[in-house]
Amino acid sequence: NNLIIVQPSPQIKEIEAVLKRYNDRIVYIDYLQYIQSDGDNVQTIKTVQRVLKDYVINNNTYCFCISATARQADGYKSVLGSSRDTSDIDYTADYLLTLNFTEWETAVPNDKGKYEPPLKTRTELNSHNTRNITLTIHKNRWGKGGDMLHYSFHAKQGVFLPGLPTQHQGIVTG
Q: Which of 6, 58, 13 is nearest to 28 (CA)?
């Protein structure tokens, strides 16, 4: 059995118990901000980060965490340091990747800090079945960061395909 499910909103102690029981597995945390403890959210994430980092080092394995990102001042582009509630994740992570709408991730404001024409809202971008998405490598501990990979996300099929939507045949878009 390669899949271990921990109930939504687990306590840190539950996660530690699962890690001790299945100590040879890759860990996937979906969604970091759902983990609970007696402390505030920032302290909880710091504790989880420490527990997971120790586990990864001691077991020579990997951990993948999905985390919310904080909205930036301009509201669009993702940056290193975007993880919500703590910068500890950004600091200890070996790799930090973000997914964002391509229009937002590649936009460049004018010299007054405005986007011309104005960028579409999240609601407008989510209203399309096919969405242009950019994966940005913000951190690569053993190499170069900053690369961007472009995908089209087909919401009805729940599929990411590399490149722009016009490059794909047989996918219904709209």
A: 6
User: Which are the contacts of 2, defined by CB distance < 8 A and separation ≥ 6?
Assistant: 25
pLDDT in tens, the chain (174 residues): 455 666 666 777 777 787 777 766 777 777 777 777 777 777 877 888 888 888 888 888 888 887 777 655 456 788 777 666 656 777 788 888 888 899 888 888 889 988 888 888 888 989 988 999 999 888 898 998 889 999 999 999 999 999 865 544 444 444
Residue 136 burial (10 A CB sphere; 0-12, 13-18, 19+) = buried
Residues with Cβ < 8 Å from 59, sequence gap 6 or more?
Answer: 23, 24
Q: What is the pTM of this model?
A: 0.74
CA–centroid distance for 62 within its chain: 16
Angle at 135 between CA 132 and CA 140, to 5 degrees: 170
